[in-house]
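Q: Given only this backbone (109 positions), what sequence would you predict?
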């Protein structure tokens, strides 16, 4: 859907994310079907791929230092309504950059 030259899909997607608070947007980022794009050699393995290894397109990503045990604890805290431990700063920065890039790309549609 377009309004004033802008795509409204990101708005709808963000509303659904905020309404349903899906686990892959809250505690276990990195679930998606797109292989890492530019900066592939500098990207860290996503939390999702740490727990769900095997996607060939993500084999070249750098080790994030995240462990399955750390991520399982985050999931347990999420489901229990407890505050989750923060991800390491480089991972958070990468996720913020990915989000900014996605928003910019949507704005240019």
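A: Predicted residues:
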């Amino acid at each position: 859907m377009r309004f004033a030259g802008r795509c409204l899909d990101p708005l709808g997607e963000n509303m659904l994310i905020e309404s349903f608070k899906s686990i892959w947007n809250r505690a276990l980022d990195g679930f998606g079907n797109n292989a890492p794009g530019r900066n592939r050699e500098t990207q860290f393995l996503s939390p999702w791929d740490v727990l769900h290894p095997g996607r060939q397109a993500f084999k070249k990503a750098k080790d994030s230092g995240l462990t399955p045990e750390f991520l399982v604890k985050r999931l347990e805290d999420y489901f229990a309504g407890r505050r989750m431990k923060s991800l390491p700063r480089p991972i958070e920065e990468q996720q913020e950059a990915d989000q900014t890039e996605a928003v910019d790309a949507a704005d240019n549609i």
